[in-house]
Prior knowledge:
Blueprint: H1 8-17, E1 20-23, E2 30-31, H2 38-51, H3 58-61, H4 66-73, H5 78-95, E3 100-101, H6 105-114, E4 118-126, H7 127-136, E5 145-149, H8 162-171, E6 178-182, H9 185-194, E7 197-201, H10 207-213, E8 218-220
Parallel strand pairs: 1-4, 1-6, 4-5, 6-7, 7-8
Antiparallel strand pairs: 2-3
Helix pairs in contact: 2-4, 2-5, 4-5, 5-7
Organism: Nonomuraea turkmeniaca
InterPro entries: HAD-like_hydrolase_sf, HAD-like_sf, HAD-SF_hydro_IA, HAD_sf
GO molecular function, one term: phosphoglycolate phosphatase activity
Amino acid sequence: MTAHTGPLDAAQEAMRKAQCVLLDFDGPICDIFAGLPAPRVAASLRSFLAEHDVEIPPEVEAIEDPLAVFRFSRQLGPDMSRITRDMLTRLEVEAVQTARPTPGAADLIRQSKRLGKAVAVVSNNSTMAVTAYLQRTHLGEEIDYVSARVEPDPNLMKPDPHLVRHALERLAVKPSASVLVGDSETDMEVCKATGVVAVGYANRPGKASRLEAAGADHVVTSMTELLVTNSTETR
């Protein structure tokens, strides 16, 4: 796929044509760790593992991403991976209570539904956390499906195609008729693996070039840039 950061109407045209809109959760929909910072959650997971007599390597001690700590747990065996997943899920559910909504995200979700598109969340965060946030923000009825972390195997998280393919199968849509809006390289990589149109959300300086290098078809810096203008929707 060829990356384009050009006219915003190119990204809007991709949204207009899409029959299905897939959204990553942390970033495009909200900042899940706005009130409970990710480094603190990662530290809690390390402390939890240490309490279970796990020796934490120096490189894992430096990790600030809770999902990366969860990925580390895979090498500890299925039982430890499962209880680490459960601990992470509890922390994520706590975090969504103070998560900060991403400007424009709710508008994009509601407009997509008005235009007759299927809308799904595809996230490495837990299904329980995503569902709790959608209930808290009254967006649950706007979302057709949530394909998020359930399995204890970290290898099934993005960039593995598992979660995206599961959503597409449940919604009965073709990859080429779908877009995925994500803010990470793994989101762009899973689009390349599945044939879904990749829209990169560059919510921090310097991220646009990384998303483009990872395979983004379009890059935006605000979710409001994806709102379809001059549409035929009924207001």
